[in-house]
Amino acid sequence: MNLSMLVAIQHRMRKSAPLLLLLLAITACSNGNGGSEQGSNAAPPAPAPSSVAGSELPRLRLPEGFRISVFAEAPEARMMTWTPGGVLLVAESGEGAVVALPDPQRTGRATRAVNVLTGQRRPHGLAFHDGKLFVANENQVLRYDWNESQLRASNPQRLADLPSGRGHSTRTLVFGNGKLYVSSGSSCNVCVEKDPARAAVLEMNPDGSASRVFARGLRNAVGLVWNDRTGTVWASENGTDNLGDDLPPEEINDLGKTAGDFGWPYCYGNRVPDRKFGGDENRCQSTIPAKVEMQAHSAPLGLAINNGNMFPVDYRGDMFVAFHGSWNRSIPTGYKVVRIHLNANGEPESGAQDFITGWLPPGARNNDDVSGRPVGVLFGPDGAMYVSDDGAGLIYRVTYGK
Ligand SMILES: [Ca+2]
User: Fold this and answer.
1) Bridging pattern class, strands 232-237 and 224-227
2) How far is the CA of 364 from the centre of ligand 1 (A)?
3) Rounded to two decimals, what is the model's pTM?
4) What architecture is domain 63-400?
5) Residue ranges per structural domain of the chain
6) Distance of CA 107 from the midpoint of ligand 1 (Å)
7) CA of 237 to the centre of ligand 1 (A)
8) Gap from CA of 252 to ligand 1 centroid (Å)
9) How far apart are CA 77 and CA 65, in angstroms?
10) What's the gap in Å between 273 CA and the centre of ligand 1?
11) What is the tens place of the pLDDT at every residue in 314-335?
12) Which of 235, 245, 243 is nearest to 266 (CA)?
């Protein structure tokens, strides 16, 4: 049975049994004892069973001392955020939903799934600021009043319209320095955009006013994270397709303190011209080079910086990136979570090092063989790492020790 079959079955079953986990448990030859509970206002996915922690994911590999388990089932799980009260919210983009996954007893497993918002247009980016919930849909940024005890969002305010249709549909948002940053990918694989708000990161006030293009020349910066030590937003960048198996490098970029041009569609990596599109050295000299270059076609999506204290000291302050995995490469790559060591100034001191692998089986020649596709990475108030996976429809929890 391949991943697409599992996912198809899971989607059919999402309102009843936790079948995917059952299948995973069977695959692992472990003895899950299943069971689930339904919340009073829970409509969507059934929660994960409270069993087989760690051993239910025998294919996944992490450094010694780390453990990974399933925190929740969440179809189409993309970006995540924490409510002010410490409840995980996830955008289920393909479902048009934002879902809360409470774990009130801090067991490491969500006890239920609560529909916070439905009928959204590919909701993706989520954030809280001054007690309000911000949601980036494909076509607009919305702000909601938030009721923590009810896990309910109300009173939507439209803060900004975003360019939509054609090409990349994900919109990500992050707060930093009192500003809201919103990423909007390109409308094409490689082209000169007519709308300056595409292939760009916008900056605006939290009420949507004073919006401007902050970073341009970013083909698809799906992951945004605030880096406290540099005082700037950092972004992952998904490079142009069809330049070969190993070009262009995927990038991590520091968006800096002032507006700038990050190269696409003319330049990539360290100011390298895309000659196929007509880039040249002169043009590239005025662009901002990548901070980290990574394997082409890895599809880096979510970014997180580990500000918690659960992981070993050496991992603190480091950046983690979810690689969604390739389609535009003859031999598959990606499908993992990597770590980039940041120094005391918040600057990278390493390239991408494997942290969680195994969704892509060793030696796989075909993307159909993968068992999951990491999307979002987020550290929790408990210091654990949470990883969303829109291939398997799961959210994992990664812990160290205990
Ligand atoms: Ca670039």
Assistant:
1) antiparallel
2) 29
3) 0.88
4) 6 Propeller (2.120)
5) 63-400
6) 41
7) 7
8) 8
9) 27
10) 10
11) 999 999 999 999 988 999 999 9
12) 243
